[in-house]
UniProtKB/TrEMBL annotation:
It comes from Paraburkholderia antibiotica. This is SDR family oxidoreductase. Residues 5-230 form the NAD-dependent epimerase/dehydratase domain. It comes from the Bacteria. Pfam families: Epimerase. InterPro entries: Epimerase_deHydtase, Lipid_A_modif_metabolic_enz, NAD(P)-bd_dom_sf. CDD domains: UDP_G4E_4_SDR_e.
Length: 319
């Protein structure tokens, strides 16, 4: 049975993977984008260049009815924030903008709204146990706060309107086309730069972009997903040295790991003003992703080795 799924942020890193996965399933995909890019063959683009989805209900094409919406578009985490009131900017896009999309989707016949949030809605680190969906959230920055507020506002709207809301919280997403810290790590490994990470024992959850896309596709239709929040990971948490060694193997480069104590790295981070970046490398952030397995019977279709192989192959072909 062919369905029509609207995907916001469809030309983004995750959006392209989700759109391809939906098309493979046989769905019609309408991608809401700010710039025409034709990133995914077979996807219909809807050009909507408005701030924070203002006026989306009025601009929604009359003939476009849909079964579900995957909402990926967001104001994303900015490393060096320059705004005097960043929380207001995050709220305008991530909370108010998301509610506008949900209301427009409901009017267009959508029964299901999949909101792709972030583990930052809960926090930046795990203590002795992996973070579960039932753990009390304590977001640490304006981005995380706005994502948590959006989750809560959307569930409230869903209860009022009858729209079935599903929240998906990924950790760090990697795969072909990845940017930011993961790309910087691959650059350093490929160049043979010694990395002071050999003594870091903390483990971090990751998710390959095609695994995340597969979970999101399931959440667009599975009746058991309605009203649920899911943490989605590859199902295996790596330490940073393990990640570096696996990537080095796939990049055909040496893994030059220097065992510098974590305490020394934290001091260096404070002195250089890079504490947040250092903590993302050496702090523990593990997610409990058993809920989606138990509720939906969903398991990641790709291993972490396969995901890293695909990512490294893309890197070697493009850098």
């Amino acid at each position: 049975m062919s369905r029509t799924i609207v995907v916001t942020g469809a030309n983004g890193f995750v959006g392209q993977a989700v759109s391809r996965a939906l098309l493979r399933r046989g769905d019609r995909v309408v991608g809401v984008v700010r710039r025409a890019q034709s990133g995914v063959e077979g996807m219909q683009e809807w050009l909507l260049d408005t701030e924070d989805f203002a006026g989306i209900e009025q601009r929604w094409p009359v003939a476009l009815t849909c079964d579900a919406v995957v909402h990926l578009a967001a104001r994303v985490h900015v490393m060096h924030e320059t705004l005097t009131d960043p929380l207001a900017a995050y709220r305008a896009t991530n909370v108010e903008g998301s509610l506008r999309v949900a209301a427009a989707a409901r009017r267009a016949g959508a029964r299901r709204f999949v909101f792709v949030s972030s583990i930052k809605a809960v926090g930046e680190a795990s203590a002795r146990q992996p973070i579960a969906e039932t753990d009390p959230p304590a977001p640490a920055d304006p981005y995380g706060i706005s994502k948590l507020e959006a989750e809560r506002a959307l569930f409230d709207y869903g209860r009022e309107s009858g729209l079935e809301v599903v929240v998906v919280r990924p950790p760090l997403v990697y795969g072909p086309g990845v940017r930011a810290n993961f790309l910087q790590l691959m650059n350093a490994i490929a160049k043979g730069i010694p990395l002071p990470l050999g003594a870091v024992a903390a483990r971090r959850s990751l998710v390959f972009v095609d695994n995340l896309a597969d979970a999101i596709v399931h959440c667009t239709t599975d009746p058991r997903a309605a009203g649920e929040t899911f943490h989605v990971t590859d199902g295996r948490d790596l330490s940073v040295p393990e990640l570096v060694r696996l990537l080095a193997t796939q990049l055909h480069a040496p893994a030059r790991l220097v065992p510098v104590p974590a305490g020394v790295l934290r001091v260096a981070g404070r002195l250089s003003g890079r504490s947040a970046q250092i903590e993302r490398l050496i702090g523990e952030l593990r997610l409990d992703s058993s809920h989606i397995r138990e509720r939906l019977g969903w398991y990641p279709p790709h291993t972490i080795e396969h995901g890293l192989l695909e990512t490294a192959a893309w890197y070697r072909a493009t850098h």
